[in-house]
Amino acid sequence: MPLCIMEQVFLAHSLIGGVLLVTMMIFARAALRSSRTQAVVVMKTLSTVVE
Description:
Layout: H1 2-50
């Protein structure tokens, strides 16, 4: 009986860890995408200021 409970706890923690991993990946992708577009905007404005 205790082994079954330990397996259930392990499975629950694994599922929660997987969900957290996926959400962190989504947020990291969104952060990289937004910082990349901000860098492009800054580079474009700097090139127009230099000209």
